[in-house]
Write a structure and sequence with these properties.
It is built from 8 helices and 6 strands. By secondary structure, it is an alpha+beta fold. The protein has one domain. The chain has a 6-stranded mixed beta sheet, with helices on both faces. A hairpin with a 7-residue loop joins strand 2 and strand 3. The radius of gyration is 17 Å and the shape is globular.
């Protein structure tokens, strides 16, 4: 699964569920497990089912399967030995593997959100995957959005109803990870951002591929 296909899925899920994000963040006990489970259910119910989707998968199992079937080393032994799990894995048995970590801000322990994003990035950075990796964060505090962008390198994928979905895609070959490139080819206009200023109008530069098939064609814009 390429990044733009994943962006498409997450954006549509946020459009379907996002009105409740602010209320969910106010509940005691946190809502991250709900978000991970609900997004997984949304993916499971898609008309075109992504191949090899797994929830809370132990990375070592994926490694063993790939080594046996394709003789390809995807994950480092250290990551597998630690028994770490990715929140989501899309694995069709090729280099098209995608690992996903998802973090959600909760007002009850909001001080843990920013460090949690950093831990997810470091976890994905150290797992030795040759395929795609992406950290996702959903928050409702403008200061955390700004901090994630300026200090951690995240980008805004979706923003409505007082909530923001941030993404940190790791570079993969010469594939574009640009959120701007994705939005320019899927939205007629971009919403006003949480800082109160309108985002620039899109200027399409390439034809966006269908949401589930093919690879998007466009400028090579590796993660900034």
């Amino acid at each position: 699964m390429n990044y733009y296909t994943f962006y498409d899925i997450v954006t549509k899920w946020c459009d379907a569920r996002g009105k409740d994000f602010t209320s969910l963040a106010e509940l005691r006990g946190g809502w991250e497990p709900w978000a991970q489970t609900d997004l997984s259910l949304y993916i499971k119910n898609m008309e075109f089912q992504p191949r090899g989707f797994l929830r809370e998968a132990v990375s070592g199992n994926v490694t063993a399967s790939l080594l046996q079937n394709n003789n390809k080393t995807m994950l480092s032994p250290g990551f597998a030995k630690l028994g770490q799990k990715a929140d989501m894995i899309f694995d069709n048995g090729t280099l098209e593997i995608l690992l996903v970590e998802l973090k959600c801000e909760s007002l009850e322990n909001r001080q843990n959100f920013s460090p949690g994003l950093s831990r997810d990035v470091e976890k994905l950075k150290g797992c030795g995957v040759l395929g795609r990796r992406i950290a996702v964060g959903i928050c409702i505090s403008p200061e955390y959005v700004e901090k994630a962008i300026k200090e951690k390198g995240f980008e805004i994928l979706w923003q409505k109803w007082g909530a923001t979905c941030l993404v940190y895609p790791f570079p993969y070959r010469n594939e574009s990870t640009s959120v701007d490139g994705f939005l320019q080819n899927t939205l007629p206009t971009l919403p006003m951002n949480i800082f109160g200023t309108p985002n620039p109008l899109p200027t399409p530069t390439f034809q966006y591929a269908t949401s589930m098939f093919g690879s998007p064609q466009g400028p090579s814009n590796l993660f900034k």
